[in-house]
Design goal:
The protein is an alpha/beta fold. It has eight helices and seven strands. Strands 3-2-1-4-5-6-7 form a seven-stranded parallel β-sheet, sandwiched between helices. The relative contact order is 0.15. The protein binds nicotinamide-adenine-dinucleotide.
Amino acid sequence: MRLLNKICLITGAAQGIGLATALKFVREGAHVVVADLKPAAVDAAVTACLAAAQAAGSGSQVIGQALNVTDRAQVDAAVAAVLARFGRLDVLVNNAGITQDARLQKMTLAQFDAVIDVNLRGVFHCAQAVADTMVAQGAGVILNASSVVGIYGNFGQTNYAAAKFGVIGFTKTWSRELGPKGVRVNAVAPGFVETPILATVPEKVLDSMRADVPLRRLGQPEEIANVYAFLASDEASYINGTVIEVAGGLTV
Ligand code: NAD
């Protein structure tokens, strides 16, 4: 159990990659705070994680936390609640994210702002809210969800690409600022992964995505969760400031 007794806060953990990561973390022995927008979805995810913990015999505690990462007061309250309960915070996974796609000429300011607010500002809020604690501990891990779109851009994703490029900038900056204090910061850049975020993508486009990937398929949420678990663990103790692409060779 590579994450035994580590206290981990995962945002956007009610479904998709975040839920797969929460499930993986409890199987690895972590105590996990499942944070997401809707209380009912959070409760369902907590139930699933507790079942996984029991099946794995990990003894993990799993806590649900209703949280909108765009609301700084909520983020501060969520981190305070984790500290009140566990007394420390070892791992933050900044996973919450949304898309609102449109070409440059069609994108509304509301679409632009919504995606920047969650995918960029939300990551900033959460990292800033945990940084003092991790520095005081002299240890901690911050993992950020970027994307291959944050490496080479994507048609129709001005807002999303800007945020995901920005997340890589955060990662490199924070790894320099916090590395000397014992805190590692890394990003994961998934390719196209089968989660509800792809629900609005037409099947024809999904087929062309599959064709572009040397492995000829979309990724599974568990394949991203595995990388988060490795990066969160002490096995990754000398990995800092990197972006790990998990994309089936998409960018080769
Ligand atoms: P998803 O839509 O399945 O899940 C995202 C979760 O984030 C949802 O549960 C949602 O409620 C939550 N969320 C949204 N806004 C929030 C907010 N303001 N506060 C708290 N929670 C919020 O998405 P996913 O595919 O699992 O993606 C997870 C992360 O991985 C995102 O950051 C996404 O950009 C990134 N990513 C996904 C893919 C992919 O192909 N699926 C590829 C690259 C990167």
